[in-house]
Write a structure and sequence with these properties.
The protein is an alpha+beta fold and about 280 residues long. It has nine helices and eight strands. Helices cover about 60% and strands about 15% of the residues. The longest helix is centred in the C-terminal third of the chain and has 31 residues. The termini are far apart.
Amino acid sequence: MKLVTRVASSLTILSTLAMANTLVTVNGKAITQQEVDSELMQATQGRFNQVPADKQKQLRNQVLEQLIVKELIFDDAKKTGVMESKDFKDEYSKVLDRVKKELSIQVWQKKELDKVNISNKEVKKYYDSNKEEFNEKESVHARHILVNSESEAKDIAKELKSIKGTKLQEKFIELAKVKSKGPSGPRGGDLGYFVYERMLPEFSAVAFAMKVGTISEPVKTEHGYHVIYLEDKKPSKTYSFTEVKPFIEQRLKMEKFKTVMQDKITSLKNKATIK
C-alpha cells in the first residue's frame, strides 16, 4: 500500500512539474519554457543572457507568439490534408534524404576523429616549443574621463583628489558619465582590462605605473586630456602545462584530423568513379 502511495505521489509531482513547465497549450499541444528558451538561444546565437532585461521580455513574448502561430498552422495543415498531398510528400522525401546524408557525414566524421590519438609526449613537445603562446601579459583595468582642455582635466582631478576608497570610484563613475566626451563615458569611463600595447603609449605609461584605487594627474594624448582611475592590475602569467594540456591536445588532434581527412578523401577519390 505504501508503494502505491509513493508511486501516486511521484506521478503527481511529475505532473505538476510538467504543468509548471507549460506556458500555453494550443488545441491540446503544450508549448513549454524549454522550447521558448531553445528558440531564443538560436535566435541570439547563444547570447540571450547578454540582451538587456527589458528586451528579453519582449523577445520571449515574440517567440511564444511565433510558436503559437506555428502550431495553429500545423494543426490546420493536418486537418486540410496537406500532409497527404503530393507536394508535401515530394518535399518531405527531399528533406529526409538531405538530413540522412548530413547526419551520416557528421557521424562518419566523428568516428574518424575518435580514431585520432595524441600522445602525452606530443603535447609536451608542443608546450615546450611554444611557451610564449601561453604567456599572458600584464594587464590593467582602468576608467578614464576624457575632456578637451587641460584646465578641465585639472579641475576634475582636484575635485577627486581628497576622496578615497569606494567613494572615489563611485564619484569617478558619476563624473565620467556627465563630463567624459569619450565613447566609454556612459559606462562610467570603463575601459575594461587591457595590455600595455593596446592604448596610446603616453596613456599606458601612466596607467601601468599607477596604484590600484588611485587617480592620475591629467594625461595628454592626441584625443585630449585624460584623468585615469585604476581599478585593478593583473600580473603577467605563464600557464602551466597542466592548465593548457587539454587545449593543446585538442588543437593537435584537429590538425592531425585535417591531414587524416585529406588522405582519406584522396583515397576515396582514387577508388571512386568520377566522370
